[in-house]
Amino acid sequence: GAGFLWHQDATAYATDDLATRHVSALVAVDASTVENGALQIAPAAHDRGILPNDKGVIRPDVADSLRVEYVLAQPGDIVLFDSFLPHKSDTNTTDGWRRSAYLTFNKASEGDFHAAYYAKKALLMQKGTISINDDFAGNIVDDP
Known about the structure:
The chain has three helices and nine strands, in the order βαββββαββββα. The strands form three sheets. It has a four-stranded antiparallel beta sheet, with no helix packed on it. It is an alpha+beta fold and 144 residues long.
C-alpha cells in the first residue's frame, strides 16, 4: 500500500469545527518494519505548533530539517501520539501486509466530534480524495 506524506493530524482535526487537540492510538495488526513502510515520527517536534504546510502536507524545506525515527511495532503494540507530532509513512515495498487500526480521542470537555469529522471526510471522498489533509501518497482505487 501507499504511504502518507509528512503531516500533522492537527491540520485535519484541530479546526474551528473540530477539537483543538487530540491523541491517536495506532494498534498494530501486523508487524511494522522499515521495508513495509512503518510510521516515521519527528520526536519533540510536537511542541512547535502547526508547521508550515500546503494543504496539510508539511513543506519539503521544513520536513528536510526534521529528525526522523521509525516506529517499529509488533502485532498488538499500541503507539500513542499527539495531533501536533509530525509523522509520515513510506510505501509498503514487500509482498506482506502492514495493517494498523487508528483510534482518535479528543478532550471530552470539547464534545463529541465523531459525526462532524466523518461528515467532512465523506464530502471529500465524494470529490475523489480519502484524506482531509492532502497527504495520501498513493492512488485511489475504485471497486471494479
